[in-house]
């Protein structure tokens, strides 16, 4: 779909030595625009895709530091994408932290995705402070 363009590479955010590469997979254009804006505010760059299969194709081509993954998408949904990603890791690929994103915060759904290998769960609409906290938690050393 497009790129998340970052500003100049600076150390302006505490704990970030370089702009993080973040992959966002969501089939809704508005959600992608919101995520892109919030990530730019965090001095992150990366890519935006509209399905899980496109996300996996991009992950095979380049490295990302973090992925935001919508649970409901056409072709390949978030559960299928997460399962395929974690299978790649069992085959030796580097672990990619994944934050599941959804408009629903049902505790059973959250627990199911965490048990399946998600590293966190955020409810849409994404809030800048929650996203910042999760980025910090998952990318610091």
From TrEMBL:
Residues 21-139 form the Response regulatory domain. PROSITE patterns: RESPONSE_REGULATORY (PS50110). Keywords: Phosphoprotein. It comes from the Bacteria. GO terms for biological process: phosphorelay signal transduction system. Pfam families: Response_reg (PF00072). The modification 4-aspartylphosphate is found at residue 70. Gene3D superfamilies: 3.40.50.2300. InterPro entries: Bact_response_regulator, CheY-like_superfamily, Sig_transdc_resp-reg_receiver. This is Response regulatory domain-containing protein. It comes from Malikia granosa.
